[in-house]
User: What shape does this take?
Amino acid sequence: PRLFLLLTCVALFGNSVALIIALLGVTSWMATARLVRGQVLSLRSQDFIKASEALGAGGRLIIFKHLIPNTLTVILVAATLRIGGIILTEAALSFLGIGVPPPIPSWGKMVFEGRDVLLSAWWVSTFPGLAIVLTVVAYNLLGDALKDAFDPRQFV
Assistant: This one.
């Protein structure tokens, strides 16, 4: 559904960098919002939140002192892991010819341009493809390392 929505919007409104960025941002926030909602619902039932409420802390104080700091790690890890998917989506759109406009370089466009000479000049497509793979793997490893570093159950 996400790729179909992206294809439809780009076909209707044309391809520009601002539109691609806006569409990727609009279509990738929903899963992170579900994670944040689950984290907040889990935190609301914790004893330290109930203790703050019992001591007379208002809603804003609880939100800014307890909920946001305990949710930022979830947001950071989810955003880091989402970057890889966004890079792959942009490369796929550029490979299909509906990504960023021609003067702007894109790894997906480089892979597309090298597909005709793949047997004689394999490096034209291979190196941009390797750059995509290595970048996505690096962001996923960073997200996994952040998850391990911020996981409070790791030391139990």
About this structure: The chain has a mean pLDDT of 86. Residues 59-95 form the longest helix (37 residues). DSSP finds six helices and no strands in the chain. The chain has one domain: 16-155.
